[in-house]
Amino acid sequence: MTSIGTGYDLQNSVFSPDGRNFQVEYAVKAVENGGTCIGIRCKDGVVLAVEKIINSKLLKPGANKKIATVDRNVGIVSSGLIPDGRHFVSRARDEAASWRSTYKAPIPLAALAGRLGGYVQAYTLYSSVRPFGVTAIVGGWDSEGELGVDGQVGTGPTVGAGGKIAGTKAGGPALYMIEPSGSYWGYYGAATGKGRQTAKSELEKLDLSSGSLSLEAGVKEAARIIYVAHEDSKDKEFELEMSWISSMDGPTKGRHQEVPKDILEEAERLAKKAMEGDDEEETTAPEGETMEE
Amino acid sequence: MASLLSSNPTLASNPSYSFSQAPQNAAAGNREHAFYPYTDNGGSTLGITGNDFAILAGDTRSTSGYSINTRYSPKVFRIGGDDETGEGAHIILSVVGYAADGTALKERLNAIVKMYKYQHGKRMSVKACAQRLATILYGKRFFPYYVTAILGGLDEDGKGALYSYDPVGSYEREQCRAAGAAASLIMPFLDNQVNFKNQYSPGSGVGHDLEARQVTPLPFHEVEQLVRDAFTSATERHIEVGDGLQMLVITKDGIEEKYFPLKRD
Amino acid sequence: MNHLPQAWGRPRDNVYGTYDASYLQPRLPQTHTQSPIVTGTSVLAVKFKDGIVIAADNLASYGSLARFTDVKRLRPFNSRSIVGIGGDVSDMQYLDRLLNSLDVTENYSSTGHSLNAKNLHTYLSKVMYKRRSDINPLWNQMLVAGLDGNDEPFLSSVDLLGTTFSSPTLATGFGAHLAQPLLRKLSDDESKVADFTREKAVEAVRECMKVLFYRDARSLDRYSIAVVTKESGVELKEDEHLEGQSWAFAETIRGYGRTQEV
C-alpha cells in the first residue's frame, strides 16, 4: 500500500488519489484474520460451515453459535468482527421481516443479498461510520413449491384468472458472499476468513458448476475443507459448526437448520480420515496434534 | 404562538387565552359505539376477617349472558408470590366483574408487589398494598377496570385485614364485604351474621331501649360456614353464581386454598 | 363571582367577548372496526386422555351470503399447538401473520425450547386485550388447543374483549349454545378427561359439527378437524365432509312459510 501515511486512510468515505477507500481495505484485513467460513451450493441444498477457533478452554463446547438463521430459509455466517456480524444478521432479519410485511411472502435470496449489499455499502459513504469488519456468506433455499401468501386462508381458483400454471419451475439453492465494500456476488462455492485460499482451491476441485454435488456429499466436503483449511493454523484448537438448507422434499424441508449431530460427527470423522491419508502421502512425520473439539 | 396568532386575524385582534388549557379542537359530537369494550362475566366474591385470619372466597363460574363459559375460573388470587403457583404470597386479592380487566389488574398488582420486595428487600405491608391498589384503579379513572376488588391479608398487628374497592379506587377497610352479581343477596346476610345488625340483647327493652348485640370477631370455623352458606344460598337465587366455591384463607402460617363444589344448574 | 366552575380562570365574556372557536376544525372522532365483515362461525374443541381435538367449518360468510367456501380456520402454530379462529376473517389473517412472524423470531434463538400452547394462549390474550383497550379490537374468538409445558393437553379460549377461560370442552359462537351442552354431557369435568378416548372425542366433535350444520344457517358441511397429541403432534385434515346427514326431520317442520303438506 503505497499511499499509506499520506493521510487518505484516516477517514472513511474519502478516496485516495488512486481511487481507493483505505478504510474498506483495512476492514478486509479484519476479515482475513477471522475463522474460515465456507458455503457450498449443492444441487438440492446449501451447506454452510465455519471453523471456530477456541480461544479459551473455559468456553462451553457447542455454545456461542456463529451461524445464524434469517427468516426460515436463510443462513448467514461471517468472518471478521463478531459483533459486526451480529449486527449484519440483525439487519438481515429486519429486511426479511419487512419484506414479509410488504409482500406477505418470504424474501427471495437475491433480494436479500441485494438489500444487505446496499446496507453494507452505505457504511463506506460517511466519515461518521466505519465499514463492516465482516465478509458474510448468505446461503438459502428459495421455495420451489407453491407457497401461499402469509395469512392465506383458501386454495384459490384452480383454473382461469388466478389459476395455477402447471409445470412452472421456481426457487432453488442460492449462495451469496457480501464484502465490507458492499459488493456481493453469487457463488457456487464461497470461502472467507483466514483459510480462504486453501478453501477456495479445494472448492474449485469440486466441479460445483455442473450442479451434480448432492447436499449429503456437500456436507462431507464442507467439513473436510474446513479441516484442510485449518492446517495452516493447526496449533490452535477449533470446533466445526455446520448448517444446511435442503429442498422442500429434502431433510430440512426448505428450512435452515443446524446439521444434525450424527451427520456432523460422521462428516468430521471422514474429514479427519482424509487428513490422515494426506499426511501419510505428503509428510512422513506424524503429527501429535489431534483435531477434536 | 406569535405565528399562530398572526395567521388568525380573529385571535390576533382579540385577547387570547393566557393559559395552556385552551381547547385544542371544537367539541366533537357524541361518539357512536358499536364496540363496547366491557362485558360482565358474572359470579360473586366475598371476604370476611377474624382476629387472626382473613378469608376471600369466590364462586368459579364464568358467564357470558345466559351461557356458562366455564365451571372453573378462579376469582381469588395470591399476590406477591414467587412464581405461577403463588408460593410465598402474603396478600390475597379477589376480582369480580369484567374478567379480562380482573386478570390485568391482578397481574399488575402482583408485579408491583414483587418489585417492591426486590427493590426494598422486605414485603409490602397490606396497608401499603391497599393504597397502591387504589392508585392503580384511580389511574384508569377515565377508562376504568370494570371490577370490584377485595384485598385481604394480615395487618401489622397480625389481625385479619380486608379492603374493599369500587372500580375507580374508592376504598375502605372493613370486617366483611360481598361483591359481584350476588352482592345484594349476600351483603345483608353478612350484616346480620357478622356485624350483628338487627340483633339485640333479649329482654333489654323495647324501642330506643333495645340494646344492640355486641359485635365480636368470629372464630374461623364459624366464618367458613358462613361463607359456604352464603354461596350455597346465592347459587340458589342467582343464575350467574354456582359450579364451585374457591376460598383462600390467610393466617400467620400462610395461605390455604379450599375448594367446595356448588350446584351446577 | 361567577358560580360556574367551568368559567373560572377564563377571560370574562363581558370584558373580552365570547371566545371565537371558529378556527378550530371540528374533528371527527377516530373510528376503528365497528363490526366484523367477512365472518367465520363456530369453533369446537374437546380435551381427551392424551390430546385435543378441534374443528371448524370452511365457510366465510359475508352477512348471510356464503361468500368463501374454502377457508381454513384452523391455523397450526408449531408441532404442538393449533388455533381455531371464529369471527372476522381479515382479522384472522392478521393474527395468522402475527403468529407466523412470532414463530420466525422464536426460532432465531436456538435454545431448543419453543412456545407451547399455553404460552401461545397467553400471547394471544395479551394481543386481544391490548387491542380492545385501544378500542380497536380484533373481532375474533379463538380456541387455542395443544400441549402445555408439561406436554399435557391444553385448551383455552380468548375473545375480542380479551376475556379468557379454559374448560375440558369449549365452543365459540353458535357452538357455545348448540354444541357445548352436547359435549358437556360427555365430559363436563377435568376428572372425566382421563377416561375420554381419542375415538370418542373425534366422534363427538364430528357429531356436533353435524348438529351445527343442521341448525346454524352460517355453517357449511365442509370442515377442518385437527388432533394434537404428544406422540403425533398436530394432525390436521382440512377437507372433511359431513357424513350421514339426515334431513328427514325437515319434513315435519311447520312455520317459516311452510304451512301445508306438500
From TrEMBL, chain A:
Instruction: Note one Pfam family from the annotation.
Output: Proteasome
Q: Give me the ranges of the annotated region Disordered.
A: 270-293
Keyword set for this entry? Cytoplasm, Nucleus, Proteasome
> Where is the protein found, in the record's own terms?
Cytoplasm; Nucleus
Report which superkingdom the organism of origin falls in: Eukaryota
Mostly located where?
cytoplasm
Q: Please list the coiled coil stretches.
A: none
Q: Which residues form the Proteasome alpha-type subunits domain?
A: 8-30
> Mind telling me which PROSITE patterns this protein's record contains?
PROTEASOME_ALPHA_1, PROTEASOME_ALPHA_2
Against InterPro entries, the record matches this protein to: Ntn_hydrolases_N, Proteasome_alpha, Proteasome_alpha-type, Proteasome_asu_N, Proteasome_sua/b
Compositional bias (Acidic residues) spans?
277-293
Subunit-level organization: The 26S proteasome consists of a 20S proteasome core and two 19S regulatory subunits.
Identify its protein family: Belongs to the peptidase T1A family.
User: Any idea what this protein is called?
Assistant: Proteasome subunit alpha type
UniProtKB/TrEMBL annotation, chain B:
**Which keywords fit this entry according to its UniProt record?**
Cytoplasm, Proteasome
- Region listing for Disordered, in residue ranges: 1-24
For whether the record's keyword set contains Zinc, the answer is no
Cite the PROSITE patterns for this sequence.
PROTEASOME_BETA_2
The transmembrane segments are: none
Xref: Pfam families: Proteasome
* InterPro entries xrefs: Ntn_hydrolases_N, Proteasome_sua/b, Proteasome_suB-type
The source's superkingdom equals Eukaryota
What PANTHER family would the database entry show?
Answer: METALLOPROTEASE TLDD, PROTEASOME SUBUNIT BETA TYPE-1
Q: What is this protein called?
A: Uncharacterized protein
Record organism: Stereocaulon virgatum
Automatic annotation (TrEMBL), chain C:
- List the Pfam families: Proteasome
InterPro entries per record: Ntn_hydrolases_N, Proteasome_beta4, Proteasome_bsu_CS, Proteasome_sua/b, Proteasome_suB-type
Q: Which UniProt keywords apply?
A: Cytoplasm, Nucleus, Proteasome
Tell where it localizes: Cytoplasm; Nucleus
Principal localization reads cytoplasm
Organism superkingdom: Eukaryota
Which PROSITE patterns does this chain map to?
PROTEASOME_BETA_1, PROTEASOME_BETA_2
SUPFAM superfamilies xref list = N-terminal nucleophile aminohydrolases (Ntn hydrolases)
* UniProt keyword annotation of Zinc present: no
Q: Which family does it belong to?
A: Belongs to the peptidase T1B family.
Function, as annotated: Non-catalytic component of the proteasome.
**Name by which UniProt lists this protein:** Proteasome subunit beta
Native organism? Stereocaulon virgatum
